[in-house]
Design brief:
Keywords: Membrane, Transmembrane, Transmembrane helix. The chain is of the alpha+beta class. The protein folds into four domains: about 10-150, Roll (PH-domain like); about 175-250, no CATH class; about 255-350 and about 410-495, no CATH class; about 355-410. The chain has helices at about 15-40, 45-70, 110-115, 140-150, 185-205, 205-215, 225-250, 290-295, 325-340, 340-345, 355-380, 385-410, 450, 475-485, and strands at about 10, 75, 80-90, 90-95, 100-110, 115-125, 135-140, 165-170, 255-260, 260-265, 270-275, 280-290, 295-305, 320-325, 410-415, 420-425, 430-435, 440-445, 455-460, 470-475. The strands form four sheets. The protein has a seven-stranded antiparallel sheet. The protein has a six-stranded antiparallel sheet with strand order 14-13-12-17-16-15, sandwiched between helices. A hairpin with an 8-residue loop joins strand 6 (about 115-125) and strand 7 (about 135-140). Helix 1 packs antiparallel against helix 2 (about 45-70), helix 5 (about 185-205) packs across helix 7 and helix 11 (about 355-380) packs antiparallel against helix 12. The protein is flat. It starts with 8 loop residues before the first strand and ends in a 13-residue tail after the last helix.
Length: about 500
């Protein structure tokens, strides 16, 4: 038992300072454009006084609110339960059994690291957001590490005995950095940087100067040339941003065994340490985004019960165990995590050609609808849209054909010793190796268009992650046989012999 018997403990008292510093930083960021925007009208001195006063007031109010939260929040960890209670105005008492604790996520942002505290999120195997976890925010770093080890310690480990760390499964290789620029974050970061420049220039009332600078710098270029230059600049900024983001997320990355658990740690400014109980694993998913796949790389996500979804304030998905790495490395890590090399090396069975024609038809229908809308508007409004319509048809038709073939090539399914394998995806190919004993049901569906060509979609239902892993557009006989062989007897009561 970690806490004293029947003893309730408070969170770390530095939570007040952490909250005050964060609010001060956010308020200062908001105050800067406010001061610059009204400095000419009201005077710089007066605006600075108002801004400083506002930052101090906001920090003080936040500190008082958090002080009340700290004074009225207590927690305790006993041999049976983890409990957190809040007893002021609204009284809440959240409790989870220790034997249902499946994941322990330790997160420490830059301000928390300065004050030596961390946030501890303790998850269970439940899927409901309200009852699946308790959060201690914050506790001391040493206390968080101790709780992380104790909460997932099995009963066969003697109290006070440290679990032996197993061999390291994977660690950061800086050569993986070359995969960051081909991720989807590169154009997003480039566009975000362009938007940030425009927004900041508006705060400083310098948008006109920015436009004049660009015009003078590239005045000899045509409009198309200027667009190409700006896109190239945004791409360069996006590449630099993606490299920096990779370093921040995956610095000091390590994945290792710790007794019966998996321990992953990573992060530069915000550090994360995720402990996952092995017996809650239901498989892995090898994900190959198009750009990364062209360079022969993939990332690995874990399929496990009790895994929470990514939140908006997180820079990475909690279930990602390996960043984009060479495919051989990703397959080895996936095999080590689930303890089966056969599951990651299983050759998948392709799907009927009807699945290809179905994708081709849908792709061409979408192109036709888009071109028809442009052409109709062109007849009504301007000839420019008519030209845009035929240009779109020329560009989008081969793209739709390529994507249809790409999606079809990625379809597949197969069976390994203890796992079933499902592969699908268009831009991003996903190969899921799911533990057959973890399948709790099947969903067989067929749209009217699928029934016309003898196809069905078979989904394996499991109490982990998204809850279902699909085998798209497989033949009816093959799909039902696959489901019956994967989990014998589960589908039998619903099958009828074919005449």
């Amino acid at each position: 038992m970690i806490a004293p018997e029947d003893g309730w403990q408070r969170l770390h008292p530095r939570t007040v300072q952490v909250t005050a510093v964060w609010v001060a930083l956010v308020a200062a960021g908001i105050a800067v454009p406010f001061v610059l925007g009204f400095a000419d009208a009201a005077g710089l001195g007066l605006m600075l006084l108002i801004a400083v006063g506002g930052v101090v007031l906001a920090s003080a109010v936040a500190a008082v609110i958090d002080l009340m939260r700290w004074r009225h929040t207590t927690y305790r960890v006993t041999d049976e339960r983890v409990e957190v209670r809040y007893s002021w105005v609204l009284h809440t008492h959240r409790s989870v059994p220790r034997d249902r604790v499946r994941t322990v996520d330790l997160v420490s942002d830059p301000v928390q690291r300065v004050f030596g505290v961390a946030k501890l999120k303790i998850g269970t195997g439940q899927q409901t957001s309200e009852t699946s976890h308790v959060t201690l925010d914050p506790v001391g770093r040493a206390t968080a590490e101790q709780l992380r080890r104790e909460l997932l310690r099995r009963s066969d480990v003697v109290a006070g005995e440290e679990e032996q760390q197993g061999p390291e499964i994977a660690k950061l290789d800086w050569r993986w950095l070359r995969y960051a620029p081909v991720s989807v974050s590169t154009p997003i970061l480039g566009a975000a940087a362009f938007g940030a420049v425009m927004q900041v220039s508006e705060w400083f009332q310098l948008q006109g100067a920015v436009f004049r600078f660009v015009r003078d710098l590239f005045g000899g270029l045509s409009v198309i040339g200027l667009i190409v230059v700006l896109l190239a600049a945004a791409l360069v900024v996006g590449v630099i941003g993606s490299l920096l983001l990779f370093v921040e997320m995956w610095y000091r990355y390590s994945l290792r065994n710790e007794g019966d658990n998996l321990l992953m740690s990573r992060g530069l400014l915000s550090t994360r340490s995720l402990t996952l109980e092995r017996r809650r694993l239901r498989g892995v998913e090898v994900i190959e985004p198009l750009g990364v796949r062209m360079l022969g790389a993939a990332r690995v996500d874990v399929i496990a019960t009790g895994m929470r979804q990514q939140t908006q304030n997180e820079s990475g998905d909690p279930k990602t165990l390996l960043p984009a790495a060479p495919f051989d490395v990703a397959r080895r890590v996936a095999a080590d995590v689930i303890g089966s090399e056969a599951a990651t090396a299983t050759a998948v069975t392709g799907h009927p050609r009807a699945a290809l024609w179905r994708r081709l038809r849908w792709g061409l229908y979408c192109v036709l609808a888009f071109v028809a809308v442009l052409a109709g508007l062109g007849f009504l409004l301007t000839d420019v849209l008519l030209h845009l319509a035929w240009i779109s048809a020329v560009v989008l038709t081969p793209a739709a054909v390529f994507l249809a073939h790409e999606s079809y090539r990625n379809l597949g399914h197969g069976l390994a010793e203890e796992h079933l394998v499902a592969r699908y995806g268009m831009g991003s190919r996903r190969t899921a190796a799911l533990l057959r004993s973890g399948v709790i049901g099947w969903t067989i569906s067929a749209s009217p268009f699928q029934r016309r060509v003898g196809l069905v979609t078979v989904k394996a239902t499991t109490a982990a992650n998204s809850g279902a892993y699909p085998v798209y557009d497989v033949g009816i006989d093959d799909g039902l046989r696959f489901a019956e062989e994967a989990v014998p007897g589960l589908l039998t009561p619903f099958l009828e012999p074919r005449r």
